[in-house]
UniProtKB/TrEMBL annotation:
It catalyses: Ca(2+)(in) = Ca(2+)(out). Residues 85-267 form the Mucolipin extracytosolic domain. It is a multi-pass membrane protein. GO terms for cellular component: endosome membrane; lysosomal membrane; plasma membrane. The keyword Secreted does not apply. PANTHER family: MUCOLIPIN (PTHR12127), MUCOLIPIN-3 ISOFORM X1 (PTHR12127:SF23). Gene3D superfamilies: 1.10.287.70. Its main location: membrane. It comes from Salmo trutta. This is Mucolipin TRP cation channel 3. CDD domains: ELD_TRPML3. The keyword Nucleotide-binding does not apply.
Amino acid sequence: VHNSKMVKSCRSPNGHCTRCPISSQSPGDSKVVEDFRRRLKYFFMNPCEKYRARGRKPWKLMLQILKIAIITFQLVSFGLSNEMMVTFKEENLIVFKHLFLKEYKDQRVDRYAVYTKTDVYDHIYYIIDRFINLQNLTVGNHAYEKIEGEYTPLTLCQEFFRKGSISPGNDTFDIDPHVDKECISIYPLEPLEDRTLSRDINFSLDFKRLLSVNIYLTLKAINLQTVRHHELPDCYAFSIIIMFDNRAHSGRIKINLENNVGINECKDWNVASTSGKNNHLLLFDSLVILACFTSLILCTRSVYKGSQLQFHYTAFFHTYFGKTVSWSERMEFVNGWYILIIVSDTLTIAGSTLKIGIQTKDLTNYDVCSILLGTSTMLVWVGVIRYLGFFKKYNILILALRAAFPNVIRFSCCAGLIYLGYCFCGWIVLGPYHEKFRTLDKVTECLFSLINGDDLYSTFQKMREKRYIVWLFSRLYLYSFLSLFIYMVLSLFIALITDAYETIKQHQKDRVLESQLKAFVAECRDQPDSGKYKIDKEPTCCCCFG
């Protein structure tokens, strides 16, 4: 850089900025260059060096350390509460299956089915009978839902073709594809006597036209686990759907139970020794929001100052050296770690606000809150890597990952196209014969597991009893996929990162400066504790460089 023909900013008689050769510069021009070089060097210093240079305390560093502690504690506190909520929901789902599904055993849901008309009626009656006698059966604190003083009924609905005449023996059928729906309501505490349901509730099924039978019921419960942790209990509304699926008309009616949970504030509650603990949690969450908001302001200010310095640097090089600055050099002024912290702070503020709403029972968005807090905590801990980069041995790893990232993205795009091709092929050909290839998302999960060496034998084994041509294709498919991705794609992926690491390591050993920005800054020999950084003045426009 110092061998280039330098030009300076001069003023013409009409007042416009022009460039003048270095020979016409005043004696103060070299001082301007040195001052700006020193300013750039100070910008790229780490917090400890900046403290030695100007005596400014590293507030952002201390704030990030504080944030790591309080955000992690907040996440653990919320995680324990969220775990109790999820456990309560999952255990109630198991309870409802044992209560309402006849002869149910803990097994895979897709294996629970009925095969005769009598079994269908028996299972439906069993569900209704269990619902009516719920208070005498359950060992939990379950109860019927009440709306304006009246119990919510159990609703029994069937969907069927509007008209149909099917004769498989004659290979004939006449079907109206329009679907009709009929529903009846059964209120609690109304005993039924006829197990066929035909007399008491006037309900019958035409199995040749039947598509599905759905039973809807709602139960209430209170999660008392939180009381032991001195937290306010939640009131739950379980909307249960029991589905008899006959859409395939194969003679096998699959039965499935789904549970949609709503969490509401209890109307009238009284738990001793909870208000103080809850107030402490609210105060702590407010402290987290305040810390993150302060960090957000400081990091946004640093990003803004970096962008300003980038414009000054571009104008400076154009004015003094007649050169344009590349985008890669301009991006050196954009601190990605600050952007990561800004995103983390934004997510933490949003998650903490939701958490306060959940604790005060105004909101019930547990899943959204856990995603926000979990992602923000992950980003906070990832941001610690920035401070490890102040040490030389750790910094080389960070530089290697940053250098390899563009090539890794390009390589992943190419490998992803091949991967998608195998996914579609496996789904179409092997899907009807192998449960791991039944849907497209299952195919992607299965192939990714195979790349990592998981379930290799079981995947091969389950294709043994299929048709010979499908069996032969499955062998060619799996062997080619494993050979291509395990032995070639993964090896090339590792080679990209290794090559970037060796390149950075060699550059550091040879002290190679990759850009004119680094070469320009490297000419400043002033140490942080030299005292020269305390008198810097920052120019405000391009003409101030002349």
